Amino acid sequence: MAEPVRISDITLYLRCPRLVYFQAMGRKVWPEAASLSNLLMREVALSLSEFETEGGMDLDAFLRESLERAKLELPTIYPEGINTSDLLAAAGAVGEVVGDLGSKLSEKLGLLTPSEVEVDLRSDRLGLSGRIDRIVSRGERDGRRGEALIPSMIKTDLPPETGVWRGDRLRLTGYAILLEDKTSTRVDRGLVEYPWAGEIREVELHSSDRRRVLRIRDRVRAINEGKLPDRPRDGPCAGCLVIDSCETRATLASKFF
Ligand code: SF4
């Protein structure tokens, strides 16, 4: 049986289908290792799932403590050689934002708890897999745990003026489909967290998004099997790591598959 298509590959496909092709060939297709400040901010955001269990601590103090812990633990979590002075500089940048985060998030924190973080999901039936940042369980406070499960993603870019980015909604839909398959519970909403902006946005997931995710899954699967997709006219080609290989691949080649 073929390996399931990863939800992250759906995001990559939306960026550029050809990036999926070159990644399947074992090429490194995207320059960013996430920046240290984004990695630290992500750790701080993940820690919010533990806030209620900390008993009595105010949110500002909790976030500052989370940042300190992330600073200590990051070299263990990502052991690829983190430079200490870069880490301290990144922690300083995150600390400036974390100072305001408590007041921005205090009203919205109920959207994120109770929850579990970094949950692996996989469905051979759907041919999809992925790791969701957080799954919120709504209804537990009323003694109705599991009444509604809400997938939530942490994004280290900034949010659009309203709602969430289209790619984020599709990715959330992918996680929602996987969660439904695992729990046999309908999942029709999701959250996107933008911690740099102190925003948590809730979105409804539509049938059209589900259809689109499944079609992209099919296309990613075909690409992983060797189909060369056409070059998009508006691909993010500036700075692309595989631009030389891409330009020498005749689009026509895909038609012989
Ligand atoms: S060069 Fe452009 S079209 Fe080719 S893989 Fe990179 S982003 Fe996609």
TrEMBL record:
Superkingdom: Archaea
InterPro entries: Cas4_exonuclease (IPR051827), Dna2/Cas4_DUF83 (IPR022765), PDDEXK-like_dom_sf (IPR011604)
Swiss-Prot/TrEMBL keywords: Hydrolase, Iron, Iron-sulfur, Metal-binding, Nuclease
Cofactor: [4Fe-4S] cluster
Residue ranges annotated for the DUF83 domain, each copy included: 168-246
UniProt-listed PANTHER family: CRISPR-ASSOCIATED EXONUCLEASE CAS4, DNA REPLICATION ATP-DEPENDENT HELICASE_NUCLEASE DNA2
Name of protein: Dna2/Cas4 domain-containing protein
